[in-house]
Amino acid sequence: MNSQDAILPIAIPLAGAGVAMLLRGWPKAQRLWTFGILMASLAMCVNLLNHVFSSSKPLVFQLGGWAAPFGISIVVDALSAIMIVMVQFVMLMGCIYALDAKDIAKRYSVFMPLFLTLTVGLTGAMLTGDTFNLFVFMELIVISAAALTAMSDDRSGTEAAYKYFYISQLATIFLLLANGLIYMSYGTLNMADLAIRIKTDALAGGPMPPMFTLAMVCFFATFMIKCAAFPFHFWQPDFHAAAPTAVSAMLSSVVVKSGVYGFIRMTTLLFEPFAPQLQQVLMLIGAIGVIYGGFSAFGTHHAKRMFAYSTLAQIGFMLMGIGWGGTLGIAAAIVFMVNHALIKSAMLMLSGYLASKAQIKSASFENIKGLGKYLPQSGVLFFVGSMALAGLPPLNGFVSKMMVFRAGIEAEQWAWLAAIGLASLLTLIYTMRAFQWVWFVPPAAGVKAKKDGDSLFAPTVLILACVVLGIWGESLVSVAIQASEWVQQPAAYIAAVHPAK
Description:
By secondary structure, the protein is mainly α. It is 74% helix and 2% strand. The chain has one domain.
């Protein structure tokens, strides 16, 4: 493959969004075009993943031919390759769900173009090799997601969009400040160049630049908000309850991963000398999130809100994996990110499906109580998805949690292990309570499922993927371990991006 291929997962959906806008007068053509673009882009991501692992070196494209650190670097290494395949596969499933959804949102001519720009933002955030363009791509994520949410047919959609937008703008301010402060300190925003300069200063033993610590804190705060970690989680429940299902499924499954990805880059590349201190904070935040998210999900009475709080708990598992560090800890976080993206998008789609079948379109348990009597297929999918989320064998969630537990045992973190064990039990309790409420409680007199509703195709594919990655999860675990080994030896990344160093 040529180095120019590295930018295609960004360029294909970006160009596709422009054409989709031109097709706004032909809704069917626009939707089919969006589906085709996402298929083509995903195929390119898979090719890049295969190339990076077969060649055992990153693929780097310098935009405009400007060498680092002066130009814009697009870097496909083992970690970013896994992430973009995850992102674009789930986005494709979200597009498929939206194609047959009954949400008013898909009738807007800008829905599909914004769905593609959201894909661009997510992919670009994983591939960029400099912190300023990380800011640019994250802004694109915010604008796209907020606009998509505001199109909801729920009355609270506009309010949820405003909440998401303004909370995300807080993250934007932190990231912009971080860029300014780190540039003041080192005169560069290229990640590879920064990694070398920061490590050199740290090894010299002298004082770090005056603004360095504040820059590191601003980066940390940015990624906490982006992954909705405790205590910056409060926008998620309102967002999920009000957003169109295809949008809420994407935000809870892949958008929050941009923050987790950022923490991995912080601890293994940008601020590697200060990783032990950062990891201690991540362990604490992760443990609080695991417990708080579990109890909050247990106490809610709305399926989508329940899964929003569940995401807080699941993000906690990932942060603890990064906090424990080492090959196994980072690999556990990567496996957890991929598996959680599949499970959570499927469960939110199933919640949306139930709401679309109810007399009043809402995923509150009171509204969908007993509706499962008429929807047996969705009951099977919900049950399997709940088992995966709780981490029971032979599903992919079991693989994720076993890797996290192994990492904790290796790190001898017994108290933290007890905390996440409790959280796993809570997950099983609240998902099974939801399952019983919908499929075993008799419906109220006269309540029946509507004939028209959303399609089960996308959540079925996602649940099947959960089963496949549970029974045959060795391939994912293997590539995650390889990616973990790569990111813990950043010399290859730096040499590929900035050969002069």
